[in-house]
Design goal:
Elements lengths: L1 E3 L6 E6 L3 E8 L2 E2 L11 E4 L2 E4 L4 E8 L5 E10 L2 E10 L4 E10 L5 E13 L4 E8 L6 E6 L4 E5 L7 E2 L2 E6 L4 E7 L4 E7 L5 E7 L6 E3 L4 E3 L2 E7 L2 H16 L4 H5 L3 E3 L1 H4 L6 H14 L3 E4 L33 H9 L3 E6 L10 H4 L4 E4 L2 E6 L4 H18 L3 E4 L21 H19 L4 E4 L17 E3 L6 H11 L8 E4 L24 H11 L3 E4 L8 H24 L1 E4 L13 E7 L6 E7 L7 E3 L9 E5 L5 E6 H6 L2 E3 L6 E9 L1
Parallel strand pairs: 23-24, 23-32, 24-25, 25-28, 28-29, 29-30, 30-31, 31-32
Antiparallel strand pairs: 1-2, 2-3, 3-4, 5-6, 5-11, 7-8, 8-9, 9-10, 10-21, 10-22, 11-19, 11-20, 12-13, 12-15, 12-16, 14-18, 16-17, 17-22, 18-19, 26-27, 33-34, 34-35, 35-40, 36-39, 37-38, 37-40
């Protein structure tokens, strides 16, 4: 017999007998199931032996329909001294599925899990192109395209989900059909593409087995990370499904994050040694006039009251406020912002432990160690570490009346803590750290449901769909120069919705040695209005923020920024938080390659309106025809901007087939218009 899990976009069924296996897995006109494959849904290695759904006995199948629009199958498999519950979710009206396992020790002897693949899928022989992203500081979302013509491994072993590579791939068949996958996990992960004898490939992955081992005592269990698989006719179709399901089912929202607020953050313009209470109050006042909705105090507020102290060294001492910079503490800043009708937030690297932090001496039981050496973080895999994280965040929120916390993580934990006096064993310290971190975030959200949680990790080095089920948005990268911003946005939104991405417009860095492209001076007499508009509109593609010395902006820059804030609030952010996104051009690259025109279309779900962003990058051709997508061919569309621009009217068929010809933009020029059916 078969179990049907199909939707309008997905032909999906499982064959059930004494086992459970794939019967069909197809979408967008292509079948992704290899004939004569073993049909394994997952794999788990216990006490050195590999088990799959095809080798274990199926003892029960159940369904959970508690969530509207979601089919949730739980299949129980039994082995000698253990059980595996295989969870499979299918979302209505999509070709998106989730799978994960719960392994339980049912015997009288402990078992040891050394590998657990949340999914396994045999695909047929064919011509495939593999797309994935490499990642490092200031180099996130660097695309790699390669033929799938041999064994491939896409992985991270540095302890942060997007340090080295991002936990995502897209496999495109020669027909154009796309299969994409993402691991919803913040630590080490892996995707494997292994050739199968006779043709085809077995795809598998999830939690990385490198340096991993988890021993389960009788009655104990562990849960694997979720792996998401999505089918679509092209990359846009896949990305839109990630975003729709994320918005509807995954992303937590407060009333503030749901609004997609405009943020001002002090960091790059002042960093730690130039910020003070007086300067922050001055910026709060100007932020109010500009229409900003959340003022953020980044690093530099804590640690010893020594002008020469460096914030990075004292991470962990969150109970010590720098009274030289903030003589009255933090609360007056929050009170000032709130009195002006704005929100107030602060930065905190709650997991980190700086080399000079007193916390390590006061609480040595919290310190993460590997082979006796400090790793630079508090191990949340221990009950004491997890409680420290929760109690500290709770205190910061209540004492300083916070509306928002930016949670950073500036280190690579590698394989993680291997202390054996923490409540975890030598082989599962990193796994338990992230499980503990997730519990801290979940507990904070339950107790403070209106506090926004922002994820950051040396910029964008921990961007994943596991963390994004506990936080409101990811910060994409530390640098914020324009071409870099466009590369990031193009890449991040292949699996993260735009309203779950935050990045700033071109910032003025006080840093004495910034990276070469990060040179912006709003007081430069050569700065032209079209350039400033280009810089600013790029960051309006997602959650809109900026980091500038507001009291020092020239009057015309202040006026243009104020106008952009109002345009974003009154017109743009509805699209960012609701609309489907279409990439109309290829990914530009920060080194000057890729597509030198960059265009994105937002289309509201009811097709009632569209928003078009177009950017002409340095080195671009003088003109470009931008072809829009999914318009109504026989409808006429009015194309108009928000400051009096009128580009006339066109038939939907013309806009899709011939395109909108753009031939009047200078380099570093931009266009922001509505494309509205008449």
């Amino acid at each position: 017999m078969t179990i049907a899990l199909s939707t309008a976009a997905l032909d999906f069924s499982l064959r059930r007998d004494q086992h459970l296996a794939y019967a069909s897995y197809a979408g967008a006109g292509y079948s992704w199931l290899r004939a004569n494959g073993d049909g394994a849904l997952f794999a788990v290695t216990i006490d050195g032996q590999r088990h799959t759904s095809a080798t274990l006995d199926l003892s029960a199948v159940d369904f959970d329909y508690a969530t509207a629009g979601v089919q949730h199958l739980i299949a129980r498999f039994t082995g000698s001294g253990f059980e595996v519950d295989h969870h499979l979710k299918v979302y209505a009206d999509t070709a998106l599925t989730e799978s994960w396992q719960v392994v339980r020790c049912t015997g009288e002897q402990a078992i040891t899990v050394t590998r657990i693949d949340s999914f396994a899928l045999d695909i047929p022989a064919g011509a495939y192109a593999l797309h994935y992203y490499t990642s490092d500081w200031g180099a996130e979302f660097t695309s790699v395209y390669t033929p799938l013509d041999s064994a491939k491994v896409v992985e991270t072993k540095l302890g942060r989900s997007s340090k080295g590579m991002h936990p995502w791939f897209a496999l495109t068949h020669v027909s154009g059909a796309v299969l994409s996958g993402s691991v919803a996990w913040s630590g080490n992960w892996v995707f494997r593409f292994d050739p199968i004898h006779g043709g085809g490939y077995q795809l598998s992955g999830g939690l990385h087995d490198w340096e991993f081992a988890k021993t389960l005592a009788p009655g104990a269990s562990m849960e694997s990370p979720i792996v998401i698989l999505v089918l679509g006719k092209d990359l846009n179709a896949v990305s839109q499904q990630y975003a729709r399901v994320g918005r509807r089912h995954w992303y937590p929202r407060t009333s503030l994050s749901a609004k997609v607020p405009v943020e001002w953050n002090h960091w790059w313009s002042y960093e730690d040694d130039h910020i003070s209470a007086e300067i922050f109050h001055e910026n709060i006042a100007i932020s109010e006039r500009m229409g900003v909705e959340i003022c953020m105090l980044d690093a530099g507020w804590f640690g010893p009251s020594d002008p020469a102290s460096f914030w990075y060294d004292y991470r962990g001492d969150w109970d010590v406020v720098n009274t030289v910079r903030f003589p009255q503490g933090m609360r007056p800043l929050a009170d000032d912002a709130h009195a002006r009708g704005m929100k107030f937030g602060m930065w905190c690297e709650i997991e980190a432990l700086g080399v000079k932090a007193q916390l390590a001496e006061k609480r040595p039981e919290l310190v993460a160690l590997r082979d006796g050496e400090r790793l630079g973080y508090v191990c949340f895999g221990s009950p004491e570490g997890e409680d420290f994280g929760y109690q500290t965040l709770k205190r910061l929120i209540t004492e300083y009346d916070l509306d928002w916390i930016k949670l950073d993580f500036n280190l690579d934990p590698g394989a993680g803590c291997n202390r054996t006096d923490h409540g975890h064993a030598a082989g599962d310290g990193l796994y338990e750290h992230y499980m503990g971190y997730y519990r801290v975030l979940e507990r904070i959200r339950r107790e403070f449901p209106e506090v926004v949680l922002e994820g950051c990790s040396s910029g964008g080095l921990r961007i994943d769909l596991g963390l994004l089920r506990r936080i409101d948005m990811h910060f994409l990268s530390d640098p914020d120069y324009p071409v870099h911003d466009l590369q990031l946005f193009w890449g991040a939104t292949t699996h993260v919705a735009p309203d779950a991405c935050l990045h700033w417009s071109f910032g003025e860095w006080i840093n004495k040695d910034p990276i070469p492209p990060q040179i912006f001076n709003p007081r430069d007499p050569k700065l032209k209005p079209h350039q400033f508009d280009y810089y600013t509109r790029i960051s309006m593609l997602n959650v809109f923020g900026y980091s500038q010395k507001l009291p020092e902006l020239p009057a015309w820059v202040d006026a243009r920024m104020t106008t952009h804030v109002q345009v974003f609030k009154n017109h743009v952010r509805r699209f960012v938080k609701e609309a489907d996104l279409y990439r109309l051009t290829g990914q530009p690259t920060r080194e000057g390659g890729g597509d030198r025109w960059s265009a994105f279309q937002y289309r509201l779900p009811d097709a009632s309106d569209n928003l078009l962003f177009v950017f002409r990058l340095p080195g671009a051709s003088a003109a470009r025809s931008i072809k829009l997508q999914d318009l109504q061919p026989n409808r006429t569309y009015r194309i108009a901007g928000f400051e009096g621009e009128d580009l006339g009217a066109c038939l939907g068929s013309d806009l899709m087939q011939t395109g909108l010809n753009i031939d009047n933009l200078p380099e570093e020029g931009s266009l922001l218009v509505r494309v509205t059916p008449l």
